[in-house]
Design a protein that fits this description.
By secondary structure, this protein is an alpha/beta fold. Helices cover 29% and strands 13% of the residues. It is built from 12 helices and 16 strands.
């Protein structure tokens, strides 16, 4: 199928529509005005390729590089070699440093659950959920740079401009909800992650499939979606006047479409505006957690200064999935900057105990609450929860207390949605330096995720610039060992 790339020309009518819809946040009106290669409603639910195990995905992303050797990947030999030169010959060069001495985990590891999986004390609450979790210990990236590694983790390519996994899933399966986007992103309240909004972009797919950014800390002063509502200067359009204006615009759109039967781009544009109008009611409702029980609020620790914001993100993810959102991505950490009190993400070059100690408590609290909540509601079986980072960290010290980037090895975990709990795939070498057994890339993780959603990654494609493109490019294998 061909992808038209002609830009829409501006007209007074189109400008008026843009003002009325108020920008529509992450869906991006400018993108809506591009030609959409789709049927009359590009977001309508579509048939899967095979029976799905999962209806929805909640993707937790830890930008900065979560250290696998301090969290999920137990390397007792590394502990025994504590303080010995990691590279006696002096031939290795890490991303930003020469290797220091071997540095074992800053937190002790212990076996947990019936499966006996070894998890560090950095994650005591998640350790109690290991029988629901599967670990991929042999993940690798093709780059040690944050932005490109983020792009690869999300889109399978280190270059910007390729569709994210959430966009591909929305393109392949459509939406389960008429009133909410199919793909929603909850950035860290501190800001966007490395690479920014490109991480959830639609790339060369029709732009309506990109993620919609939702403010997890929305309140009376801050709308849940940027520019969702008309500005205050348009107060004359509020209330009943706004409803009448929308109805009038809808009638104009439909009259315009009558004489252009079969124009799928026009129908897609109209559908996007209509969703924007419905979001003015549905988005504030879904972000209002005041009706949640006190027990649930305590479970997610939403009122805590440090762990509360991420807990709120996780609670909102559950509420979104309950209401039919297909793919929710949550960021636990923001753009990489130099540390003040702590690093704003997991990039612990200077002081890993300080930074991972802070972020570990944040992830441990929110993610464990999410798994427990989903399971208690009977939703975990149909919701795939996955936790990723862009690369790992080195098993040698950097500057005494930090660790450098390690694209050669890191760990990802998954739970629910058809995942075989208490299992593991692949392994690193005895020091955790490189993936040794069953080296795995984002292609395999993406293929597995799509498989659980009922999609064959080799069959879902889009014709672009003379190539039939797909999320996994020419790679990817379903990781059968962790699938029920």
């Amino acid at each position: 199928m061909a992808n038209s790339q002609q830009a829409a020309t501006s007209t007074p009518r189109r400008d008026f529509l843009q003002q009325m819809a108020g920008g529509f946040g992450g869906i991006a009106l400018a993108a809506m005005l591009q030609d959409a290669e789709a049927a009359s409603n590009p977001l309508m639910a579509k048939a899967a390729h095979h029976v799905a195990r999962a209806k929805a995905v909640i993707h937790l992303f830890c930008p900065g590089g979560l250290s696998h050797v301090d969290s999920w990947d137990y390397r007792p030999v590394l502990a025994r070699r504590q303080g010995q030169p990691f590279d006696p010959d002096g031939k290795l060069q890490f991303f930003a440093s020469k290797p220091g001495n071997c540095q074992g985990s800053y937190w002790p590891f212990r076996p947990h659950g019936e499966c006996g999986r070894w998890i560090s004390d950095l994650f005591p609450k998640l350790a109690s959920r290991v029988d629901d979790m599967a670990f991929i210990h042999s993940m690798q990236s093709k780059t040690a740079l944050h932005g490109p590694a983020m792009f690869m983790a999300n889109s399978g390519c280190i270059l910007p401009g390729f569709p994210s996994m959430g966009a591909w899933v929305t393109y392949g399966l459509g939406s389960l909800s008429e009133n909410l986007p199919s793909f929603v992103v909850l950035p860290d309240p501190r800001g966007l992650p490395p690479g920014g909004v490109i991480n959830w972009g639609a790339g060369f797919l029709p732009a309506i499939y990109q993620g919609t950014t939702l403010n997890a800390d929305a309140n009376e002063e801050k709308a849940p979606i940027a520019d969702l509502f008309p500005p205050k200067s348009f107060s004359q359009l509020a209330g009943e006047n706004e409803r009448r204006s929308r109805d009038f615009l809808q009638s104009l759109n439909r009259q315009h479409a009558v004489t252009r039967e079969g124009n799928s781009e026009l129908e897609a544009r109209i559908a996007a505006y209509e969703l924007a109008a419905r979001l003015q009611l549905s988005a504030p409702e879904v972000t209002d957690i005041s009706r949640e029980s006190e027990a649930i609020r305590k479970l997610y620790v939403v009122d805590h200064e440090d762990v509360g914001p991420f807990g709120r993100q996780c609670l909102l993810a559950r509420r979104l999935v309950e209401r039919g959102v297909r793919f929710v991505q949550i960021y636990c950490g923001a753009e990489n900057t130099t540390a003040r009190k702590i690093r704003p993400n997991w990039d612990s070059h200077e002081d890993l105990v300080r930074d991972h100690g802070y972020w570990g408590a944040v992830l441990d609290s929110g993610a464990s609450a999410l798994l427990a909540d989903l399971k208690s509601r009977g939703m975990l079986d149909s919701t795939l929860v996955m936790c990723t980072t862009e690369f790992g960290r080195q098993p040698a010290s950097q500057g005494g207390k930090g660790r450098d980037h390690n694209p050669g090895a890191f760990t990802v975990w998954l739970a629910g949605g058809g995942i075989k709990g208490g299992t593991a795939h692949g392994s690193t070498d005895e020091l955790g330096f490189k993936a040794a057994e069953n080296p795995t890339y984002s292609y395999d993780l993406h293929a597995t995720t799509m498989h659980l959603l009922g999609l064959n990654h080799e069959r879902l494609s889009f014709y672009h610039n003379g190539i039939q493109r797909r999320l996994t490019d020419v790679h990817g294998q379903v990781i059968e060992s962790i699938v029920e």
